[in-house]
Design a protein that fits this description.
Helix content: 25-40%
Shape: globular
Order of helices and strands: HEHEEHEHEEEHEE
Number of helices: 5
Largest sheet: 6 strands, mixed
Distance between the termini: 48 Å
Structural class: alpha/beta
Radius of gyration: 16 Å
Length: 196
């Protein structure tokens, strides 16, 4: 069997209404006049990019997989960078740190990074129910397609963020919970926070 992880294989075509995390985030960023530009890092098919644009934001998508059509690397900084269901498909801690570091590189000085992952509990539950094979620090959700999953809880995301100079943004408690999902809002530790 093939042991190559293909993170892009997990991308889902979503309706024009955006992903559940994007819909939950929108009311919070609407309260922050400083959030005008958004980068959806690891955007896949770009559904959330269209959703943010439809709601009046300057939004750009970036995904390193060229067939999605968003592989041109941005050259600007953004008020908000979203990293939605990306970390959970990266098959190593070092890889997850590299993704976080790269995504954080697009933050404006007072920018925010919204990290969303499948929760550890949800991935473990699915792995047991569907008899997924263990791989690296997670599971093959479909080995023949190269689909990997590693669930992350808030403590793991924040630990990784801390290693790249990011810390929790205080109003994170205002997020509504999302089923089977972990979401955190972080910012650079040495910069002033935006008022959300």
């Amino acid at each position: 069997m093939d042991d190559v992880v293909r993170p892009y294989a997990t991308a889902i075509r979503r309706p024009s209404g955006g992903s559940a995390p994007a819909r939950k985030l929108l009311p919070l960023i609407a309260e922050a006049p400083a959030v005008r530009s958004i980068l959806d890092y690891g955007c896949g098919y770009g559904s959330d990019v269209g959703f943010y644009r439809a709601n009046g934001y300057h939004a750009i998508g970036y995904d390193c997989y060229p067939p999605f059509g968003y592989s041109e690397r941005p050259t600007q900084q953004f008020d908000l960078v979203t990293l939605v269901y990306v970390m959970n498909v990266v098959p190593s801690r070092a890889g997850r740190l590299a993704v976080l570091r790269d995504a954080a590189g697009f933050l404006a000085p007072t920018g925010l990074l919204f990290v969303v992952s499948r929760s550890a509990e949800e991935i473990l539950s699915r792995a047991r129910a569907k008899r997924w094979l263990a791989h690296s620090d997670g599971f093959w959700s479909n080995q023949s397609k190269g689909m990997f999953q590693h669930g992350l809880d808030e403590s793991e995301i924040l630990e990784l963020c801390g290693e790249v100079g990011l810390g929790i943004h205080p109003p994170v408690a205002r997020f509504l919970s999302m089923r089977d999902t972990t979401a955190v809002l972080v910012r650079r530790l040495n910069d002033a926070a935006l008022d959300i």
